[in-house]
């Protein structure tokens, strides 16, 4: 028994070593930096320890803007994308002809490069000296006022951001949900039919509870993913997100490290840990809700 | 409620491009009398589940009509037919408790037909009591044994007092002992409710033991309908004879010459039918009687002890299967290990079939 144990650890050693060096150690380091005032990575020096970094970050208007942006993004895009994905999956599940074709179409964004998609959105939304963008053409066609979606009012930028995020995250959700729907045994539907269950009731009382674990999985990973949003913003608004007022928490961390105002690993670490605390809290709440409602 | 199938046919389009449609149910015409327990029996792929789905409305027939009593239900959707269906794997909703599962069909009712909450609860509890699961109402299906799940499924099917109860392979997911118990249960529940019940099975013993009538099917055709004992004693053709009975009926190549039935070189009995060059002789295992100067001479292979009876395994050159199995009461079994063994045949356990069509040839021994 003892010998066997020893062998098991030996087999695990490469993974443990790798993870310790590249995952666990940096994590601990980030934790340590976040309490060290004015840490300098070049000289490996700092002035003192304390909660100063947290205080600074929490009073930084850029950080507060980033938190606001991130929360709005999360609260809007997670329910909208999950709901839309569920609708599309239900549609896909109920058609026979062209199902593969539509499945491919809906899955395309998943395999497309984020920055390439960003370019497409620029063409759709960006105002240039030559064109107002396709969406503005449409708005004007229907008699509306053209809006600058990329450099214009906050709500317009946020709208583009949300549409973009929803569009990018949906393919994966559709993929998961269509397979979840397909895995509900036909017998349940037959039983419901023999019992004369109306379609809406079949959906709410049978389909939804049966795929609930998958929906919760998508909501939880969706929350985590949306909190970590950054590259999508860069794709649309460029690298100077603070100037555009569209920064996210991860964007703020990145800027603190490498941006024009960068070189502050202590602030970055503090911001990263605040993000971690937020994500952890929300995930725990999510898990508690999902445990309660998917017990069977 | 009596159920009448009138020239019912169901064709499925063939998946592959070649070949015509697959005919799952071919021109069924029969009447199921009110309040009886009927076993639809046949090997897998014979169309029995399709028949059940046609009766409950999950499939629509290609041709023909279905009547419940005097009502033509051929084109009614399942919910308007008043059928209760028990699925092979029970199809209990895993996220609902037993009570919620049983209540579900009642909660679907609308308007006039919808009972009050208390009435629903009362009827659900009554159904649960009938199948003896009234102490498990708050459990979820995953916390029940297979037999208990089966009962819940039956209660769910019965709670809306269906005109016809349909059971698809109700016992196939249960272990051997539970199967015996549950089939008694089904019989009891059917007797108590008096609901016309049709159940599908591939297990002939199961069908024979509890059915009032059995319908033997193969390849989409009905081969015989009748009381279990009648079908067993008077099989219409070779398929029915081989399908019913364990151990299986023993088959031999035989001929009739000068009013004598020959199995190989052995003239086994005098018969009153016309001479035939070639026919198939079927003898039930219990149709053999040990007799020292018996006409059928077989080479003994083994004697298997089964308690009440012994199973004598032997071979004969004219036998179609490799071994012949005969059931002999244990006190008559000889104490021998090898050599030849001679049998006399019981005429009413011996059947003659046309070697080509498999149709039964009537005869009587003289």
Structural summary, described in words:
The complex is a heterodimer of chains A (296) and B (366). Chain A is globular and about 75 Å long. Chain A has helices at residues 2-33, 52-59, 61-94, 99-111, 114-125, 134-141, 154-182, 186-194, 199-227, 231-237, 241-244, 249-258, 265-293; strands at residues 36-37, 48-49. Chain A has 296 residues and is mainly alpha-helical. The longest helix of chain A is centred in the N-terminal third of the chain and has 34 residues, at 61-94. In chain A, helix 4 crosses helix 7 (154-182), helix 9 runs antiparallel to helix 13 (265-293) and helix 12 (249-258) packs antiparallel against helix 13. The radius of gyration of chain B is 25 Å and the shape is elongated. Chain B starts with a strand and ends in a 5-residue tail after the last strand. The relative contact order of chain B is 0.12. The chains are: A mainly alpha (296), B alpha+beta (366). At the A-B interface, helix 8 and helix 9 of A face strand 6 of B.
| Shape summary of chain B | elongated
Shape of chain A: globular
- CATH H-level superfamily title of chain A: MetI-like
CATH fold-level name of the largest domain in chain B: Rossmann fold
Features:
heterodimer, A: 296 residues, mainly alpha, MetI-like fold, 76% helix, B: 366 residues, alpha+beta, Rossmann fold, 2 domains, 6-stranded antiparallel beta sheet, 23% helix
Concise account of the structure shown:
The complex is a heterodimer of chains A (296) and B (366). Chain A has 296 residues and is an all-alpha fold.
Question: Mind sketching the topology for me?
Answer:
The complex is a heterodimer of chains A (296) and B (366).
Chain A lengths: L1 H32 L2 E2 L10 E2 L2 H8 L1 H34 L4 H13 L2 H12 L8 H8 L12 H29 L3 H9 L4 H29 L3 H7 L3 H4 L4 H10 L6 H29 L3
Antiparallel strand pairs in A: 1-2
Chain B lengths: L2 E10 L9 E11 L4 E5 L6 H9 L6 E6 L2 E2 L10 E4 L11 H10 L9 H14 L15 H13 L5 E5 L7 H18 L2 E6 L2 H7 L2 E6 L2 E6 L1 H6 L4 H6 L6 E8 L2 E4 L2 E5 L5 E8 L4 E3 L5 E10 L3 E7 L8 E6 L10 E6 L4 E5 L5 E2 L5
Parallel strand pairs in B: 3-8, 3-9, 6-7, 7-8
Antiparallel strand pairs in B: 1-2, 1-4, 4-5, 9-10, 11-12, 11-14, 12-13, 14-20, 15-19, 16-17, 16-19, 17-18, 20-21
Helix pairs in contact in B: 2-3, 2-4, 3-4
